[in-house]
Amino acid sequence: MTQVLAAVPIAGLDALVAVELVLESGSLSAEHILNVLARLTSTAAPPSAETSLQLKIAPVANTARYDRLRTTDEETRNA
């Protein structure tokens, strides 16, 4: 909880609002409070850029390339 107290001088009263929101949710943790605080103090996302570009070839999910990285020997993976 010292992380939350350290955020108070930086965030001001928004830190108390974040604590109140987390207490209402029922799952109290410092990480949760800091996450809510970050969401309260974040700026709006920039607008998406409009473009006239079009894909010629659609991307294909190729999971086989990841399967080649897997090993079959259990001892090698856990070493």
Please characterize this protein's 3D structure:
- With 79 residues, the protein is mostly helical.
- The protein has a domain at 2-41.
- It contains five helices and no strands.
- It has helices at 2-11, 13-25, 30-41, 64-67, 74-78.
- It is flat, with a radius of gyration of 23 Å.
Please provide a brief summary of the model.
The protein has 79 residues and is mainly alpha-helical.
Main features:
79 residues, mainly alpha, 56% helix
β-strand amount: under 5%
Mean pLDDT: 84
Number of H/I helices? 5
Q: Shape from CA axes?
A: flat
What class would the helix/strand composition place it in?
A: mainly alpha
Taking the sheet with the most strands, its summary is: none
Number of strands: 0
Helix share bin: 55-70%
Low-confidence stretches: none
Helix and strand pattern: HHHHH
Calculate Rg over CA atoms.
Answer: 23 Å
Distance between the termini: 36 Å
